[in-house]
UniProtKB/TrEMBL annotation:
Gene3D superfamilies: Dihydrodipicolinate Reductase, domain 2, NAD(P)-binding Rossmann-like Domain
Database matches in Pfam families: GFO_IDH_MocA (PF01408), GFO_IDH_MocA_C3 (PF22725)
UniProt name for this protein: Putative dehydrogenase
The keyword Transmembrane is annotated on this UniProt entry: no
Length: 329
């Protein structure tokens, strides 16, 4: 493919350097042409490490570059709305790291800006682009595991010793619900194809980590008595799993958001569904580019990101008030 979507990276975050920039490099459609930091030396160092042609010492310079088609934003959560809107108003398409904003109101402002600017805005949930989730939905639709009765998801890791980490600043959108709880929440919405009606969450709020939720466990109520039970944390052993329970069987994902293979358990036994080894970040970049070029409709719209933030808003309110919170449609 001769045509390439030209990407600019707004910030030198670890996720950008470790995963997204290499993913764009492995994609069929994209090329990273510039990176910006508020520290020119930092962006120059990152550019040299990752063979990026241009380095800028300010975000504004990157947005002013007319050789850039799309911006990827891996900044701390509280900066997502500000810089996404500035990028879109500069005529750039935007891939914003999850969670897309601090709340649904901010996410709606971003969605409105994308519409008025005529640009594509997407939230960077890379796992959704792997075909394993289409396969899972096909198995559920086939009736092989019967009627759905519930889901259970986890995403935990232990980084609590890094006290200066941006994840532990409450005003910056710190906490495990924002950082990793958003994964099982979005997965349940994706698999069930509907929005939850209420949330109940209990959390470990740590004074030594600015009272963010270092661990949270919750229930999201969907229709027909189906629920997602989940836990997420940044002060616990690592895991990222998903179980989908039906009346006649279940689907087990040992690495739900970072892997692909999964197991189907039925009365006939257990089989492993082998999935192709694909770079989720490259798949995400290719999907994004094809939407920009008008080759396909967006699979996940800005409105989907707003809906996900409504759920996270309810989860946070529940955790801090110790109450069940209804989610408005």
């Amino acid at each position: 493919m001769s045509q390439k979507l030209r990407w600019g990276i707004l910030g030198c975050a670890g996720i950008a350097k470790r995963a997204v920039i290499p993913g764009i490099g492995q994609s069929e459609t994209g090329i990273v042409t510039a990176i910006a930091s508020r520290d020119l030396a930092k962006s120059q160092e990152t550019a040299a490490q990752l063979n990026i042609p241009t380095a800028y010492g300010s975000y504004e310079e990157l947005l002013a570059d007319d050789q850039i088609d799309a911006i990827y934003i891996p900044l701390p959560n509280h900066l997502h709305m500000e810089w996404s809107i500035k990028a879109m108003e500069a005529g750039k398409h935007v891939l914003c790291e999850k969670p897309i904003a601090l709340n649904a109101q901010e996410a709606q402002r971003m969605a409105d800006t994308a519409k008025s600017a005529g640009v594509h805005l997407a939230e960077a949930f890379m796992y959704r682009y792997h075909p394993c989730y289409d396969r899972i939905k096909d198995i559920i639709a086939s009736g092989e595991i019967g009627q759905l009765r519930g889901l259970h998801g986890t995403f935990t890791f232990n980084n609590a010793g890094d006290s200066k980490n941006v994840r532990y600043k409450r005003e910056w959108g710190g906490g495990s619900l924002y950082d990793v709880g958003c994964y099982p929440i979005s997965a349940a919405r994706l698999i069930l194809g509907e929005e939850p009606q209420a949330a109940s969450v209990h959390a470990l709020l740590s004074p030594e980590h600015d009272n963010v939720d270092m661990m949270a466990a919750g229930i999201l109520e969907f229709s027909n008595g189906v629920a997602l039970s989940f836990d997420c944390g940044m002060w616990a052993a690592f895991r990222n799993t998903l179980e989908i329970l039906g009346t006649e069987g279940r689907i087990e994902l040992p690495s739900a958001f970072l892997g692909a293979n999964f197991f189907v358990h039925t009365k006939d036994g257990v089989r492993e569904e082998q999935q192709p080894t694909l770079n989720q970040y490259a798949l995400q970049a290719d999907d994004f580019a094809r939407v920009v070029w008008g080759q396909q409709e967006a699979r996940f719209t800005p409105e989907d990101a707003v809906a996900n933030m409504k759920v996270i808003d309810a989860c946070l309110e529940s955790a801090y008030t110790r109450s069940r919170v209804t989610i408005q449609p």
